Amino acid sequence: MICPICRHGETVNGEASVTLERGSTTLVFKAVPAQICNNCGEEYFSDEITQSILKQAESAVAQGVQIDVRQYKAA
After folding, report:
1. Residue 59 confidence (pLDDT)
2. Radius of gyration over every alpha carbon of the chain, rounded to an integer in angstroms
3. Number of domains making up the chain
4. Secondary structure class of 74 (helix, strand, coil)
5. pLDDT tens, 16-71?
6. 4 occurs within a structural domain
7. Looking at residue 52, which CATH number applies to its domain?
8. How far apart are CA 27 and CA 58, in angstroms?
9. Which stretches of the chain are DSSP H helices?
10. Can you tell me whether residue 28 is helix, strand or coil?
11. Cβ of 37: how many Cβ atoms within 10 Å?
12. How far apart are CA 70 and CA 8, in angstroms?
């Protein structure tokens, strides 16, 4: 797809890191499947991937995790 941010690049399959923070919890997901603009580097995640990350993040917050770095895997 054409990147909606820069409007010049095309997105390509790749992997990205996602960092989420809430209160005292910081989570980093590595190797998350994404569409990445080959011009500006903007990252786009599917709804399925986004929901999976948010579900895992909610679980970590509920468990009292403060800092966690993990490889992404579908929930």
Report:
1. 94
2. 14
3. 1
4. coil
5. 999 999 999 999 999 999 999 999 999 999 999 999 999 999 999 999 999 999 99
6. no
7. 3.10.20.860
8. 10
9. 47-62
10. strand
11. 22
12. 33
Residues 6+ apart with CB under 8 A from 46: 33
In a domain, residue 60? The reply is yes
Q: Which amino acid is at 29?
A: F
Token pair for 26:
């910081």
Residue whose entry in the numeric block shows the structure tokens 């500006």: 40
Q: Please state, in angstroms and rounded to a whole number, the distance separating the CA atoms of residues 64 and 32.
A: 23
Sign of CA dihedral 39, 5, 56, 29: positive
Domain limits at 46? Answer: 11-71
What number of other Cβ atoms are within 10 A of residue 50's Cβ?
13
Residue with tokens 């010049």: 8
Per the CB < 8 A criterion, the answer to whether 57 and 27 are in contact is yes
- Does residue 2 lie within any of the structural domains? no
